[in-house]
Amino acid sequence: MAAGVNVRFAGELQSFIQQRVLKSGLYSSTSEYIRDLVRRDYEQEEKRKWAWLKDELRAGAEAAESEFVALDAEDLIAEARKRKKANAR
Q1: Cβ–Cβ contacts within 10 Å for residue 31, how many?
Q2: Do residues 20 and 34 touch, judged by C-beta distance below 8 A?
Q3: Whole-number percent of the chain with pLDDT over 70
């Protein structure tokens, strides 16, 4: 069974969310609205990652032979960890 997450909103945020649910007619509950927001954010992040990968692959494919640098698996893993830390900030 999946674990749930409880989030509380108050004041203007709560009013805003309630109005979005009521006015749009697209959502039957605030939970459905929040799930949709998170899903869209997740999809946007995935698109950003794929765009980055495509850009890197394109640059590699277009690079002159002299621009290539020999790397081993440890170098690649270290670079991935470095980028992950940088993106987490």
Answers
A1: 12
A2: no
A3: 93
